[in-house]
Structures
1.
Amino acid sequence: MAQLVSSLRLTCQVNVFPCLVLCYLLFILVGGVVFTAVERPVEKELRAEVAELWRSFLQENPCVQESRLSELLGRALSAHHSDVAVLKADAEEKRYDFTSSLYFVIVTLTTMGSDTYTPKSDETKLFCIFYCTLGIPLTLFFLTLLSNLLLPIVTYAPVQHLHSYWGLPYTQAALTHASLLFVIVFSLLFLLPALLVCMLEPDWSFLEALFFCFVILSTVGQGGNSLGRNWSLSARETQELFTTCYLLVGLIVIITFRDTVLQVPQVRAVIRLLSGPQYTELESIHLNELSLNEDHCEKEPQYSQSICTISSVPFELMSPYSELQRATTCCPDTS
Amino acid sequence: MAQLVSSLRLTCQVNVFPCLVLCYLLFILVGGVVFTAVERPVEKELRAEVAELWRSFLQENPCVQESRLSELLGRALSAHHSDVAVLKADAEEKRYDFTSSLYFVIVTLTTMGSDTYTPKSDETKLFCIFYCTLGIPLTLFFLTLLSNLLLPIVTYAPVQHLHSYWGLPYTQAALTHASLLFVIVFSLLFLLPALLVCMLEPDWSFLEALFFCFVILSTVGQGGNSLGRNWSLSARETQELFTTCYLLVGLIVIITFRDTVLQVPQVRAVIRLLSGPQYTELESIHLNELSLNEDHCEKEPQYSQSICTISSVPFELMSPYSELQRATTCCPDTS
């Protein structure tokens, strides 16, 4: 019986990489199917609406040639795509000013991307390529440095407290802390801003506002649904400023949360399992770590400020820390 | 003299974090100034063009009420923003089909974001939030796993070869290899695709095509400038398929390149220096490592397949590897 279990475990470990590939493909397929199924009817409806508007306009204005109207609309759409105010009401107000520029810089460097501001001239495009090649890694590096300053306060100290004062085993302390942090982060970073957005833009439902917050902080970028299209210029500038701050602060908190989750022993065990045979062979996975009350889990690092844990927050460019530390502190033993 | 140099070095090390903050703010400001200066005249020109078109249309069609035209245009623009084909010519062709859905899934999960497809219904938005919360970390994890398979072939073996057969010191071998790889990656991943795009879309300049490739692979997202707006449906579907493949393969190569760069000792030294006092105190930076021909640089890990280097490619979620390995291989010494 024990042999069967251990051989089953080995098979599972060896085949984990192909399984992961298969599951991922399935995940993508399911996404594709759901989006097609749900979106198609909505799109059909919207399209019918526009066609009806078009038809009634031509009927009401018989002097207008359809081809001429098409031309006007086509040009207007392409100009609108480059964020040029097409409608008279906007035209007086919208300008590519310094605030907009700063907003563009931040959303581009965080790879969120802006759909309302895009470089129009060749010089800007060239500058943008060089600027981002340097700036994107720098921004991620910088955000991670700031998150590193947050980690001892937000994660190490509370887990240590839960462990030593409340007497929770290390794995439980880490898991409890991560769950609590999730609730706090989700409330402060998503629910609260979504409520604020709802209050500011009464046309939007709460879900729309939540989605708006989500696409910003996931750096996916807001596809057209931008806030404040009908606001005054100064209100829109304030909104851009707030969005920029929200994005930067949010990313730092999310990096901190991610690193907190990656410190949870159960999460580590799952990732080790999923990393495929080349890692499992080397590291001999303990599936037991997945359960909560194993004694050996207590041997995990205790969030002390030792050289092994102080710089444990690699994100993108931060990975060199672990590299460096392995090089300086660990490798001498093996080389 | 030696004392002066060493005290200067210490000052530099202690103040490196505030300096970094200052430099980063300056970097952002310069970006903002340049974008404002270059973009404003171009935007003014475009806006004047649209205003002229609008005026001449109203002059030619005196029966049209300006307010009515504004309304039509406003509705058309907002529908266009949700990727509903507004013009008759497109309307027959464009559909939210399965290919488009898959394209949307991939560009969203890689956080590039699509400006042409956005969820329109509430159900899709809710699904999108859950799907991405799970999918974005999974995608990054998956791409890094694949890049890990590439790294021994693309980086470890060539550097080892340069080191042992060509007799180059380790630091020089790593630097030479990284430079060569940069030329190859830039040619194959940016210049070649940009040339192809140029051939397919004769209206675009080479710079426009290069910018198009750049915003895809940096996951910033193509702000409106999407390829193939005037193409046939099947051509556009093929283009979406190719873009998806380009994005995924490109990201794997870029992750591999990034990790290659992070293995270069000079890069490590710079990052160690920039990481601020809390790291420098612990690790006692050797600025000498910045020079090429120091003997002690030879002591860097030799790209062997030891446990210290095999999993040296943390990217986003991959960071647990280094965590894990420190926990399993290194920490027993310090705890």
Note: Chain B has twelve helices and no strands.
2.
Amino acid sequence: MPETATARPAGLPAARNSEGDQMSAAHSALLNTMQQRFGERFSISTALREQHGGSEAHHTPALPDAVIFAETTDEVAEIVRLCSASGVPVIPFGAGTSLEGHLVATHGGISVDLSRMNEILRVSPEDLDCTVQAGVTREQLNTYLRDLGLFFPIDPGANASVGGMASTRASGTNAVRYGTMRENVLSLTVVLPDGKVIRTGGRARKSSAGYDLTRLFVGAEGTLGIITEVTLRLYGIPETVSAALCSFETVEQAVGAAIAVVQLGIPVARMELMDRGLVAAVNAYSGLSLKLEDSLVFEFHGAPAGVQEQIELVQAIVEENGGKNFEWASTPEDRARLWNARHNAFYAVVSQRANAKGWSSDVCVPVSELSGCIRYTRELLEDCSVPAAILGHVGDGNYHVVFAVDPTNAEEMAAVAAINKKMVRRAVSVGGTCTGEHGIGIGKIAYMREEHGDAVDLMATIKHAIDPTGIMNPGKILPVA
Amino acid sequence: MPETATARPAGLPAARNSEGDQMSAAHSALLNTMQQRFGERFSISTALREQHGGSEAHHTPALPDAVIFAETTDEVAEIVRLCSASGVPVIPFGAGTSLEGHLVATHGGISVDLSRMNEILRVSPEDLDCTVQAGVTREQLNTYLRDLGLFFPIDPGANASVGGMASTRASGTNAVRYGTMRENVLSLTVVLPDGKVIRTGGRARKSSAGYDLTRLFVGAEGTLGIITEVTLRLYGIPETVSAALCSFETVEQAVGAAIAVVQLGIPVARMELMDRGLVAAVNAYSGLSLKLEDSLVFEFHGAPAGVQEQIELVQAIVEENGGKNFEWASTPEDRARLWNARHNAFYAVVSQRANAKGWSSDVCVPVSELSGCIRYTRELLEDCSVPAAILGHVGDGNYHVVFAVDPTNAEEMAAVAAINKKMVRRAVSVGGTCTGEHGIGIGKIAYMREEHGDAVDLMATIKHAIDPTGIMNPGKILPVA
């Protein structure tokens, strides 16, 4: 058993390979019961199971035994109760956009697809909050909110489900101003591993009433229960929005400018780094003609005078740090083009190579360490045989490397894994984290003890107490033997 | 056993009254061991125990068996290990400013005084963060930070310890702009109930690496472990700070203006309600001559043009809502006088009656419910026989009632308790919480199930898993039979 492993509970099936054919009699009986109960919303089709047990990312898929499309919290509770009684794993599925193998059915089981739970249950413009079912996607939500003059800022790029974003503690480009899912989830409805349904909080903006269960489930990656409803903070669409792009001769200059903006407390809404490799990929993929230099993209939100003041301060900082070619995207169309290109960065890198998969690794470090960590990462990439680019939400100290890999090439995968390991270790060694926003899944488990030390044992204690039979998304965050 | 009770672990002493004289042999032996080990830093003096088992608030004191002044995390771990072996309760003590009986030694035990752990261990101006020992007070920290151009915004009024503020998930006047301890603690060093020491996180601004242990201990009121070090977010002192006070004929008008400011997303740094009763008390206590009307106090932080813009927007909203007498406190001295008066609100109300204690109850509701809840509370206060006033961090939907009570008058205490109960129930019934920032302690336990339903059982599961012998601040948050 590896050092970080939690013991495998007696009832839980062993880890399996992608064939996934070691099924017990109780397990088979459960599938029959489920089929009777859910009819055509239950499926064992290989194509569907492949879609639910794989991802766009590089991890080796492992298929669930079946997929069920749940439509209500009560149905999810019923599925969990049945699985609990039979010791069958349960894996919640939202939009399938996670990057660290969160959906890989390492121990088989049932994939509970929540995508049909896509109702926006309530919006309160007075309170700037809403409650949605877990399968609502962020684009769906923002389309709905637009006519009310509101928006939900958390934007991981992909059109993820709100439940999935809560489960991975997602953030993205706007986090430097608006925070992450940690700060923007007010409360959750959760189905616990025994099938009980709880609410983790109310609608008050703050509370000191007991343990912070909301924050316990945000980021738990479905290992403690299934999130079925989410109450979110919302924001008024700013009166003024302005975006700008500028370029630098070196990535250190770009990072230096970003750090200065943070340190001066200028409330930029977005501040994104694209290294020159990424700019090239984005130009090719999205038909843009951005200057081939290390670049920062800014967005400013607020009332007109405040935005103008922010712009002037940022422009001065950029120039002091050697930045130039300040280009404005003032119309909504120009801004949309710029941010769409940024959002498609993952695909832009992957498309540089035929039949490649994307391996996107993210770390987050104190901003004072950002320049050194990125410089070190670039040095590592000099010896990398596959297309790779650096991008980042640098205002938070968070950056990603996207590699275009061939998962069937073991030697290449080992080489990329070695680079990833060095990048992660460097981040952890300077007080950072092995993942700023993608989550642990199966991809970062090996770094949990390195980052958290004995605190990992406390996480395992909590996991055992809440999910004693270990059925909730086993093998994620904490390894199961 | 009441519905919300968690079972009393076999080793834990029964709840006791304030005489606190039912001590087992093992318990007495432990005290001898502690005295040997800690010498003059161990005390059983009645005066000291009274100071540690009581508070300025209305709760009936219960004394710990002894007080130990710890000086290092290792010492705290040693004390906890010894107490754990003997089943003796441990109650962490910071500055003694909590309001809901968090320090009352309902089951006896050792009060671990952390006030000598008051070292500022590290400040990083580049990263806008610092690490301090738990006994550092917020005023001590801000005095230290001033020369660096930095400040820590969380301001509960009292000069609380940072560890205590983390433990009660404190917030206060600046939370509408900067968030609460929930958002501003980056990580903690915690002594667990078995004496192990963990770090709950690193220094990255965000992380998706496993369960959010930081947020689990923030607000746990010492019931899951003892916080000994805290890493905090810091902020640059704003270039421009401006404060203003304005008055309204009715409290509904004042609340209406506050709600409009929130809904427009104007980033005010502070927005405080003082009802006319509080204004009268504050004038008398602090020698001011504020107009005797329901009032809002604002503070604005930022760069000059942005602040000016905020001021103009707020002034227009205030006038639309019937506000008048806009008075500016532009000099640091004027601002300090205004905020000191506001900070002394608790004492101002209590001083209206000789030999009174303060009973400060707080609730937090969605802002759309704030006006109705405050109106209801004022109606309740019309029949109240003791001095009372309403004040609030209305930008968050958080308000307090301070009563000046005579704790020895059972009839009066029952009458105030009845008002409190009605106020809390109304808050919970509209989606709010029974405490926005004071915590549960012993004072709000009765409302835990009403607010959280079956989620209380999950909290008890977590408590049992982390503290199986139940020694950590027993009787707080979750009752012990």
Note: The domain at 120-236 of chain A is CATH 3.30.465.10 (Uridine Diphospho-n-acetylenolpyruvylglucosamine Reductase; domain 3).
3.
Amino acid sequence: MIEQHKFELMDAEQLTLKLIEAQYTLKNSRGTDHAKSLVVIVSGIELAGKGEAVKQLREWLDPRYLQVKADIPNLFTQKQSFWQPYAPFIPAEGEIQIMFGNWYSDLLATANHVSEPFDVYLFDDYVERMRAFEQDLKNNHCDVIKIWFDLSWKSLQKRLDHLAPAEQRWHKLHGLNWRNKKQYDNLQRLRQRFTRDWIIIDCEDAAVRDQKFAQYVLQALRHLPKHYENGADLWQQAQIPEALLHPRHAPTDQADYKKRLKKLTNKVAAALRNDQRRIIICFEGMDAAGKGGAIKRIVKKLDPREYSIFTISAPEKFQLRHPYLWRFWNNLQDKSNILIFDRTWYGRVLVERVEGFATAKQWQRAYAEINRFEKDLSDNQTLLIKFWLAISKDEQALRFQSREQTAHKRFKITDEDRRNRSKWPEYLDAAADMLALTDTDYAPWHVIATDDKYTARLEILTAILAQLLAADG
Amino acid sequence: MIEQHKFELMDAEQLTLKLIEAQYTLKNSRGTDHAKSLVVIVSGIELAGKGEAVKQLREWLDPRYLQVKADIPNLFTQKQSFWQPYAPFIPAEGEIQIMFGNWYSDLLATANHVSEPFDVYLFDDYVERMRAFEQDLKNNHCDVIKIWFDLSWKSLQKRLDHLAPAEQRWHKLHGLNWRNKKQYDNLQRLRQRFTRDWIIIDCEDAAVRDQKFAQYVLQALRHLPKHYENGADLWQQAQIPEALLHPRHAPTDQADYKKRLKKLTNKVAAALRNDQRRIIICFEGMDAAGKGGAIKRIVKKLDPREYSIFTISAPEKFQLRHPYLWRFWNNLQDKSNILIFDRTWYGRVLVERVEGFATAKQWQRAYAEINRFEKDLSDNQTLLIKFWLAISKDEQALRFQSREQTAHKRFKITDEDRRNRSKWPEYLDAAADMLALTDTDYAPWHVIATDDKYTARLEILTAILAQLLAADG
């Protein structure tokens, strides 16, 4: 926690020198074991001077490595999570992002705009989820500090008295009626529900305000702790479910397979098309388990304008400089109502765990992070349908063999696949933990045995249909 | 041009093998002198089966390096250029992007939706600008092929007869009434205004359709010509204007400087705030010419929620894999109405030209590309205000010296700056060409002498005000 006492005005030259040094140290941390990025969340009373303080900071720092995001508030619509409008702006290692507009300013704007009083429990619930989201950012080396620019009622009124009429109008547009004491008091009450862990800057004096702000940022910039990456001493490995160890081989009667498939395909297409929610269908499973084939059947009767498919491979270098969920946040910016993922964010606890791309601490933490991520989506009119396609090692061998024999399928088998195959038990362990720790009410897993691919296809479609119709669709 | 005759059905195994080989060759071209990306624009008559053909192609290719964009149409609003919704999806070297939704489908949808008949001259003007945009993409190693899926009136009616009612409703939602012969004929007439340079696929037969589509894509994938980068034999260097050779030093009376500055700052803020257009203010100039100081005065009376500042430095590696304007297209996604650029896309014809980061061919071509880019913006309710800040070499030396003496400003002078300084004549040549070739009616340059920075600030604000009030603001 940043210390709030012992404040002293510094020589401005000294301060800017230190800020720039710290900024360059941050920038040069990229790729090291103490790399981080910094989000500065800024909110406060209108006319307290947060804009001026940000402008001053921009002059004291090198503006090339400092972004300022400052849109007018997004009112909460229940159609996207509070973090969604901001996700693309979560900075990369070495960068600083000032969030003048942020999830708290959106929360305050929403609470003040809804006609009925905003339920305080709902308000507190939002705050709790925001804090959890920020903690996840911090754990992923994106530091967050939050600064509230405060101003007393008396000073606010005095400043309003001296404001040009044109400006008065503009400030009113973007908030409350600041002449109304009741509204002011209400806002102060509301913000106290979340500013417990904020830095509060009293903005009576402009010079003190700008310096305090800059000094807090400086303190945060200088804090570049080494990544602490040890895992739990004792990791409680989940038992591997029977369904993964010995996937059923349940042949389908070929006579009516085609008829049933066609009927199901039509039903699934209609149910997907008519659902008002956003649908996210996720596929994970060993190689050659049939993810591609399943996706093909799901979209069979849909038009490409109705869905998007994301085929996930190893992250690019620039993506690795962000929290690992970042690239999926960006995928969610897609406008389609139906999103299908061929491999997903669960890569963190599967391939990244097994191959050592994530540290023990990182993958062990990821279960809770992913659960929160999916909960946020599910709370915002999104239905998650998740599949683990279980294949036996023997059946995989047969499929690899048949691919080897087909020239154009050979590209699908890489040395990587063969390596993965040699780590079969580790992948089963990883899948077992994933199923045990992320099978939630709001985003349950479907484990489908795929040794018989015909049965698997029918079961996948049936499961999608059931989940679409079960929830309040 | 792709040959449209001599079509033969290929063995599907052979075709997919060739497609995947070509796709991997494309992918491996990244970073070489024959690298490219491929955009496949897909449109056509409803039910012709373009969706099926795209799905089939997705199965024949490796889906990890193939993106499909297929939103429902964006109607043209005059608030953004036709390419703006698609700009973020222009693929990086080595990638393939299928644009199932694209600027042509938007054009057709707009022409069919507006209540009054869409003027054919306006239609043709759009088509011309689309072709110019595509040519710019091609020149920047992003190849474009366009494929129209055609279907006769008779076949369309037959397919509608066999469509389930639910599907019929959905298809109707996304286009015309396909039972209306007049609408069908009208669409065919309209599309013929742009399909001259398209590949037309007759979709009577599904197998032929899918193969033709895949074969055309294959042909495009295989075409990986070496980048041809020789410049013009004789480049007509513009004469360096007097204003650049000898920037005036016109001292401002310090007595009323502050008063005038304050008044202008207020006026500019009010004019910017009240303008209904989008405003883009661009700064270019030698180092230490005062770009930062000018920006500071422009935003002085604005709130950060009203503007965004982009401080442009050298592109990142992943940005270099796209056309050079791509990162600026992305900046334009910003929601602010006032965008300020501290350095701009003119880097292509300034630093990239002088330092050799762009080939002669590239920077020579860029003037026309930039003009088209700015024309498109200006045609869509955007006002461009461009400044070249002219400083004398002596004054720059003085400012560098004073920076050297101020610890916190030392970071602003790098070896690069000193190198730039040694190429002063080359930068003046580059600036001269830029001013000669990109000073347009719709986006004129203001050359401001900055040896006296007080005068410069007043002149910049005055110029902004004048341009805001001059045009039909």
Note: Residues 254-274 of chain A form the longest helix (21 residues).
4.
Amino acid sequence: MNQADSSTIVVKRTIAATVDELFDAWLDPDSLAQWMHPGTTALSTASVDARVGGAFEVLMHYPDKPLRHHGVYRQIERNRKLSFTWISDATQHSETLVTVEFNVASAGTEIVLTHERLPGQVACAEHTQGWTLAFELLADLAAKPLVLVTFDWVPEMPRGFVRDIRVRWALEEAGLPYRVQSVPFSDRNADHFSHQPFGQVPWLTDGDLSIFETGAILLHLGERSEALLPAGPRGRAETLEWLFAALNSVEMASLPWSLLQFSGNNDGTPGWNMMDSFLKKSRLAHLEPLLAKREWLAGPFSIADIVMADVLRLVDRFDGLADYPACRAYVARATARPAFLKAHADQMAHFAAAD
Amino acid sequence: MNQADSSTIVVKRTIAATVDELFDAWLDPDSLAQWMHPGTTALSTASVDARVGGAFEVLMHYPDKPLRHHGVYRQIERNRKLSFTWISDATQHSETLVTVEFNVASAGTEIVLTHERLPGQVACAEHTQGWTLAFELLADLAAKPLVLVTFDWVPEMPRGFVRDIRVRWALEEAGLPYRVQSVPFSDRNADHFSHQPFGQVPWLTDGDLSIFETGAILLHLGERSEALLPAGPRGRAETLEWLFAALNSVEMASLPWSLLQFSGNNDGTPGWNMMDSFLKKSRLAHLEPLLAKREWLAGPFSIADIVMADVLRLVDRFDGLADYPACRAYVARATARPAFLKAHADQMAHFAAAD
């Protein structure tokens, strides 16, 4: 390795995090997508097959077109060393080699990245800049106290509707930095139940607080951002009553209805008819005239809208809003928000990465 | 009127409230029961037929036996004058006459009460003391900013389970003063829907704030009392996650289940079986081991327990806790609390008074 060599660069950075955390940040696709991108606006999606010989891909979503980076893992020595090939437009599609070493340091962990076989000095300069920026983002990510925990994978059907989307959406609306961590879908252990007593997801950790129930998480985030929950007593009260209304009046009717729909038990029995009427006559019929007259439930867009729109879009999925055009239009305008689109794309990519 | 007369007394009191509010406090049976009683422990129940010639009854519940006061309205001039006959043990069952005049005063409203035809000086002294104390309670009541609004009447079946009980319970636990106001069960008008968009009860007014959804009301009250919601960040987070869990994880399963039970649609159809399993396998089975190990959900008793216990006792009513003894024991210890017993008795008395 010779830094004067016109085909090799070395980039070093010490980050205040454990070796464990930083090593995972390279191999967990969610983490990788969150720091390996070219800036704060363009985002990445990533897939990882974390074994020697396994492939990875990072798509950096530039405004004009995505830039594809891909390669194959050559060495994986947990918490010590990682090496992989690296091919992109910027390498002129030639195969280059990246080696990352992790050294325990007094201020955390030193990362030493060596990028070899780059095609010339311009490529060397570009990649030095690129890795330096990426490490800046990785350091930011490691400093983030908010961690959203969700399943590593779910079947096709619930994708896009797993409840972590409500938390992702709120975090994106508020611009709060966060990381995503996975727990196994198919093997929920005691640690999982200690965070979420019903074995569900998501939960959120904020420093040493661990909070389950999306309603409680959104309220917690709301206390941190006026983009989610107004600070004045009237705005706060109105937002909270609608948050509870979405969860305990509307979803209490819509979720059983959706379960019966999903399982094919929407069968004209008296029980089904009762649940159908509970949702439509007792809930949507009252919501419809309100949503025809207001853009959002409680003045400005808030956590109440995140929950209500997410509740209603599941009803819409089973065509339950056909007779409620104002409810449907409300769902459309809520889900057109950039924060929702980002949250939705992230959830889809997260589960797809584990297929 | 002659104060020296041995059969007539006059009691005056100026109270910081509008004439409107104070006039209503005499003719609304809920209000009447809350101030026309002999002290802070013994309570009253009241019925009122608020028209000239209509009868009223106030039962003051002394520890040994209720004391009955009754009479008939002779004059009702709204916001000016009220007169009625008054018969009780203390009048030696002879018919006496009470006239109440309402005068606008700079500090609120002056009430001038004249009680005629009392049987002698002892009765005069007793009634002077009685009315003076009652006016003290009326002044307290008028100063209370918290008003719980519920139905004037409901059918037999839901009594004891109407959701205002959660709010009554919280108010009693916290010792917060409040009044109860009624809205018609059978004729829900636009004003009702402006406070509660689904036409349900309860709602709470706190000064000029009006809040619906029991979850939002309990959270609002929790901010006022550590007996309901711990102030520290960890205690607060744990209480709130369990509040939402009770409303959005457990009740979302239990309420549809109860509706199907109540309507006789617990019929072994696949739809019923799914909802039964949703409640028992996905919820109660996870709650059972937790409640076997802890007295309350989140450390000290809190609003989370008020909701969870109320949710579970409806399941218990349909014998759904038979296989979950820890859940059942939890309901038993929560509903043995004096604040629950008071809230429950008040709700039963409130609806019974309108039969």
Note: Chain A has a mean pLDDT of 92.
